[in-house]
Design brief:
Elements (H helix, E strand, L loop, with lengths): L1 H8 L3 E5 L11 E10 L4 E9 L8 H15 L4 E6 L4 H9 L3 E6 L9 E7 L7
Parallel strand pairs: 3-4
Antiparallel strand pairs: 1-2, 2-3, 4-6, 5-6
Length: about 130
């Protein structure tokens, strides 16, 4: 699937590869983030953020998300949005820590009973350094 994401979204996919100190060694995919930019609305959407379970809790998700936000802001977007399952406390906490705020709580975002928080980070208010 990662190959297809790279083919379709190109610049919007950031991949974090293994380095010394990780058991897989150099070149192992530890995680990735996929961001789609809309030039029409000047908003980016984080469509996927994945860190291999073996490496969760090491700050890799934060590194990926920070890099994606910096890139989106460099490209001139005014806001970065993401949907998060409300029970995923780690994801909600990660996004809050990077100045994302809950814009909406939609009980049926992906269909009946598929609740999601829509979280937004305003580039103009909190520029990522």
């Amino acid at each position: 699937m990662l190959r297809q994401l790279l083919d379709v979204h190109g610049e919007g996919v950031l991949v974090l590869e293994g380095r010394e100190g990780f058991e897989e060694g150099d070149g192992a995919v530890l995680g990735y983030v996929l961001v789609a930019n809309s030039t029409r609305t000047q908003v980016s959407w984080v469509l996927d953020l994945v860190v291999d379970k073996r490496y969760q809790g090491l700050g890799l998700g934060r590194r990926l998300l920070s890099a994606a936000v910096r890139r989106a802001e460099r490209d001139g977007v005014h806001a970065v949005r993401v949907t998060v399952e409300p029970g995923n406390r780690a994801a909600v906490g990660l996004h809050r820590s990077l100045d994302f705020v809950v814009e909406a709580d939609d009980p049926d975002y992906f269909g009946p009973g598929e609740r999601r928080l829509v979280m937004t980070r305003l580039a103009t208010r909190y520029p990522m350094r």
